[in-house]
Amino acid sequence: MIREIFASVFLLIGGLLTLVATAGILRLPDLFTRMHAATKTGTVGVSAITIGMMIHFNTITVTSKGILVIAFFLLTAPVAAHMISRAAYRSGASLWILTRIDEWKVHGRKDNESDLPSGED
User: Measuring CA to CA, how many Å separate 106 from each of 45, 102, 110?
Assistant: First the structure.
């Protein structure tokens, strides 16, 4: 009984967070804020749904696969969002008109400059 309640709570939280991610994608003004909403709440929502599934089935096989799914999402979603947003910025995607600080522009970065150290001291 308690296990079913916990599983239901996690599934409900995950579903709500996924719904918030969807609303963020539809309502937010530019690519960068949309991607932030999709990445953060989507990853936490999928993790909550996976935890609910692990609680419900309560087997070592499902639990181990669930842990791998959560680890995969936590490792890949932020990196993918960062790389996509960086590519979008460099290709000229427009920022929201109320964006106050553009740190790449403030620091004078050029498109051909690398983020990696050049090895020159």
Answer: 35, 6, 11
